[in-house]
Amino acid sequence: MEDFTPEHIVGIANGYRNMARALNELQVRRWPELTHEQHLDLNAYQNSLLNRAQDIQTLTVRPAFDKAADMAAAIREATHVAQASLKHTRNLTIALNIGAITVALASYVARANLRGIETALRELGELLVSED
Question: Domain of life of the organism in this record (predicted)?
Fold first, then answer.
């Protein structure tokens, strides 16, 4: 088992922050289309991602995986692709699901839950493919 390196941690935390920013930009762009509950959901996703970014950088024990570098790269890539997809998606339901799954991914990473991470990455990949 390998711990995430400080570089892995910074990359993942920046991915979470960028995803929170992308969700905020989506919210601003689509403001009139969103229901009150959807606004609350988006705010919760943003807050959760920002909190996870802070948490992962301040943990005294870093998450550990068999191939930490590969895992960190997969997480960074997934958050980057999710963030980019929010800029062009027309389907609000898919956009909200992208946010929710990214939050779940961040939660699984914080607990070093390999099965949860793999599931979230797979679901996010399937959702992003269906968006194309």
Answer: Bacteria
